Amino acid sequence: MNHHRSPALFRNALCVAAGAALFGIAGAAGASTFASAILDINNFRITHASGTIYRNTDFSKLVGVNDAHATAMLNNVFASTAATGTRPDVAHQCVGAPCPALGENNFTPFGTSLPAHGNFSYADQNFSGSGISMNGAPAGARSQTRADVATAYNKQFASSNSDVGSSNTMAFRLGSSDTMTVTFDATPYAMAYLSPEGRAITTANARISWSVNIVDLTTGLSVFTFAPNELNGLAAVSRTHGHTGMSLYNAAATTFHLTATSPLLLANRDYQITMQHNTLVSAQQQELPEPGTLALAFTGLAGIAGLRRKALRG
């Protein structure tokens, strides 16, 4: 009997055995991720040094524009919309299933609980009101954004991102020199969660950012910036593989009352005030074989290598 085995035959056997060990004996580990970020800015007002609300008649020039966007992405499938206007309100976007049963303009946090496991990316935004009194109407703007993502895939790679934001810009010229004080209530919320089950490479991140900035349009220099830590550096949570569980920021949905005052702004000089408001979340999962499966694979490969050495000696 001819005991000689061709190298090609052993290469094929090696591939088949490795494939059986890696995929046929035990499936890849399961895992799930979730991230959520919500920011509610309410009763945003701009006041004089005297404490009275700015009115549109206090400006010799006043031109404003508000932009908003909501983008959801799951495994490179996108749902996105944008709006520009006095009070932009973009429709909520969702990719995947099951999408959270939130409804339009629902900015209530999940708290310390999790939604039903799913594979989705969700985004929503709303803006209403005005930071100054327009034609005698009461002042008080509200800007809200929400971003949620989840992955719960087995035996495959999953990536989900959600980006929601608004930009409110007003170019102006004051009739008389004065300061500007911004005052508002802010309720931020952020969650990042990784399931303790499974051994996948997983990440979950949630981040909020908010700022207001005044630029002197003559010099191009910023003369005032307010970016409170409660809505920026503190409002970021993350979890990575090896650190499963839940990270939360402001789980009790505490509302912060925030205020800041600009330096003196000169009359008849062109300025621009911009409020930037963003919530961003991401989650990723990449499955790995169970350690026992890897051990079985290496045992199988070692056995095949031994057979090959024996055959070559024969």
TrEMBL record:
Residues 289-310 form the Ice-binding protein C-terminal domain. Keywords: Signal. Pfam families: PEP-CTERM (PF07589). Residues 1-31 form the signal peptide. InterPro entries: EDSA_1-like, Ice-binding_C. NCBIfam families: PEP_EDSA_1 (NF041538). This is Putative secreted protein with PEP-CTERM sorting signal. The lineage of its organism: Bacteria, Pseudomonadati, Pseudomonadota, Betaproteobacteria, Burkholderiales.
